[in-house]
Amino acid sequence: MADKKSSGIEIGIYTLADIGPDPLTGKTISAKNRVKEIVGAAKAADEAGLDVFGIGEHHRLDYASSSPAVLLAAIAQVTEQIRLTSTTSVLSTLDPVRLFEDFATVDLLSDGRAEILAGRGAFIESFPLFGYSTDDYDELFEEHLELLLQLAQNETVTWSGKFRPSFGEAEIAPRPVQDRLPVWIGVGGSPESAVRAGKYGVGMAMAILGGNPSRFKPLADLYRKTGVEAGHSPQDLKIGVTGHAYIAKTTQQAKDEFYPYYANYWQYVNRQRGMGTKMSRADFDHMTGPDTALFVGSPQEIAEKILQQHELFGHQRFLAQLDIGGQPLKNVMESIELLATEVAPVVRREISKNF
Q1: Cα-atom radius of gyration of the chain, to the nearest Å?
Q2: Which of 66, 218, 335, 350 has an alpha carbon 20 to 30 Å from 304's alpha carbon atom?
Q3: Residue pLDDT, tens place only, 324-353
Q4: How far apart, in whole angstroms, are the C-alpha atoms of residue 39 and residue 244?
Q5: Which Pfam families does the UniProt entry name for this protein (predicted)?
Q6: In the chain, where are the structural domains located?
Q7: Which CATH topology does 4-352 take?
Q8: 242: cis peptide before it, omega within 30°?
Q9: Structure pTM?
């Protein structure tokens, strides 16, 4: 097996902590039990040898995580090696000082395993909740990102901006264990976001949830080109890929088991967005084809898809979202085990040959 640190790619999982009814039983898990399951899944991922665990941020009753840092702090106490990241922190409506200090604290608790993945979010419920206007959607993100990166670089910061009160020679504490707390930007398909990530020299995580992944290659190329032109070392320009996944012993088993939950997930997500469409089995089978970005299948098929994407992007990180649609914890745990023991070793070995 290729050594994890020298393989050239990190493999992990993430959750948005959605709370949906199980379509087979009709039962909906409580937020308390959902949070406990997430901590258990993170512990299992760590013990199985995966590299990264991420938690998203939403401010809605149908999600259980409004504070990724708090959950990651709890996970830090039951894990030993796995890196801990937000996926994502909604930076437009978060105070960057509070965000940095929270994750610096997670870094202390985890002995240097914390990261921040900042994004603008798929929903906008945090804007009125925290007193921001969606009219400032992009400008808020830019300003908050600039401040966050200053906080990561300096113990004492002076700041003046448009959206946040100014401060001078403020001590930013605590400082993390890591020399610099890693910051990534989440990108859903916007060239402007890829340019921004490259300009600042931070990691870029691409959310590729379906379709042909080749459509994202221009974003990867633009990110690297912008980063080099801005003076950043190519080695520091890291790309991550995130996507929905479900793994079973055979491809047919994976499709049969996952379809009810995946259709259920998109039905309630679409309902949240004011749409009432339901995915057919034929549509689902098409979406899981070999040339698509939906990772549903046997360990061999999942490994092949990751490697195909690596040929496109040369990325350094892959994160799978396994627990959507009201799935029982048993299904999620089986996918974690297969990802760690049958998919990851193959991917690491193949990529390490060229690393």
Answers
A1: 20
A2: 218
A3: 999 999 999 999 999 999 999 999 999 998
A4: 19
A5: Bac_luciferase
A6: 4-352
A7: TIM Barrel (3.20.20)
A8: no
A9: 0.96
